[in-house]
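note to self: dont lose this again. the chain is below, predicted strucutre after it. 130 aa total, dont forget to put it in the shared folder this time
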Amino acid sequence: MKLVVCCSLIDIDGRILLAKRPDNAQMGGLWEFPGGKIEPNETPETALMRELKEELGIDTHESCLAPLSFSSHQYSEFQILLLLYICRKWRGSPRAFSASELKWVFAKDLRGYAMPEANKEFISHLQDLL
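---
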């Protein structure tokens, strides 16, 4: 079981940031919400703040993270429990340190992006929210 946290960064225009997985990575070329594995002794919020700093070069506070939903999915190689948070306030401009590309997308357009199955389950929640 992989315990993973991810975030829908929402900009002032109501767009959501997607990150494209590098082609040589597991599930390469798919779009996802930025985040990563929760390390031992980390809370989900601490893990998410660390991952956003490592992957995008941005800083946020725990008070700026709001839990929205979770997804449980069985892939052929592993089971994942994915926790989704939203964040509307951060410092810095997101940069693609570990993704091959970043893109700001309106919620209504999310289904047009190929995503891992666990991420797809969040689309309806985000469309309802935005």
